[in-house]
Amino acid sequence: MRREIFEPEHDAFREAVRTFISKELAPHVEQWEHDGVVSREAWRAAGAQGLLGFAVEERYGGGGIDDFRFNTVFDEELAHAGISGFGSPLHNDIVAPYLTSLATEEQKQRWLPGFCSGELITAIAMTEPGAGSDLQGIRTSAVRDGDDFVLNGQKTFITNGILADLVIVVARTDPDAGHEGISLLVVERGMPGFERGRNLDKIGMKAQDTAELFFSDVRVPAANLLGEQGQGFIHLMRNLPQERLSIAVAAAAAAATVLELTTEHCRTRTAFGRPIGKFQNTRFALAEMATEVQVAREFTDRCIREHVRGELGVEHAAMAKWWVSEMNQRVVDRCLQLHGGYGYMSEYPIAKAFLDARVQTIYGGTTEIMKEIIGRTMGL
């Protein structure tokens, strides 16, 4: 079906993104996968191309266009190219809204130019060893002391954790206030007491730096408080739907790419004297997956349309996140099976897609948490 959410400017942007990816990212993927981290040069190249900070005002170096469809195009093309390590979706889709909507003028002048140029790479630190999807269970604390907050605690599974120059840290500033005692503090590279642990060894997304972060009596200036003190949980709830939609977009694009790859494989791979695509079992499997991919894309596009209008509900974002990410897992698993022994070889793209897909049902809120959110909106 023809996708109706894009305008000519989005189509032109897609071509520019494809050119950028083929020249600046794709040739280096194997090295990044080996290193466990993407080069800073890639970030600066993306900034120079205008691919960072679409929604940031032009006076700070951004694109000045608050239109999530541009984010969608970039995210989809990264998925189509099999580039899972470049952390721009987190930078553009997840961190940017916090800075554009909550930062003071002084903070914007300090941070946004570097954000858009790729000189300042960002992360957001929510998850802790003892608190994953349950944000109210965080233990990292920050106590006001004069003009500073003294921050103590630990975060884990932090995307862009090794490279990040700015980290939005979710911390408890009032231990007795429940969800009203949570605030957001921006920790900057080089602050005494801020340490990074190891670059975590994951089963997939090998080029994506994912780290443990440690905070020991880090003095964070009160000028680095993002938004209102005690309103951090509210700020998080307002921005999580876009994060979950971003994951759904990537999952839908990844499933479509894997299906296309597998369909071609079934046309050329032979067994018992004929292409395996000629067997009814194979055709049925591909037909089922093609249907699921199309359904996922249609619902995701509907969510994108509502989000652009400012009407996307938390329940619909949760529906897209869990269903599309689970669908991607089903599709990539069945596609690997159709590749036979070749699917189990690391050198084949299907194997990398299989490993990269697994985390999508976990990060951004697990499938189980998404179902809880939907159930609560139903009054259950």
Proportion of residues in β-strands: 15-25%
Total strands: 10
Please state the overall shape, judged from the principal axes of the Cα atoms. globular
User: How can the largest sheet be summarized?
Assistant: 4 strands, mixed
Spatial sequence of strands, sheet with the most strands: 1-4-5-8
Q: Name the helicity range.
A: 40-55%
* Unreliable parts: none
Structural class: alpha+beta
Radius of gyration: 21 Å
The averaged pLDDT comes out at 97
Helical run tally: 11
User: What is the N-to-C order of secondary-structure elements (H for helix, E for strand)?
Assistant: HHHHHHEEEEEEEEHEEHHHH
For the record, give the distance between the C-alpha atoms at the N and C termini, rounded to a whole number.
36 Å
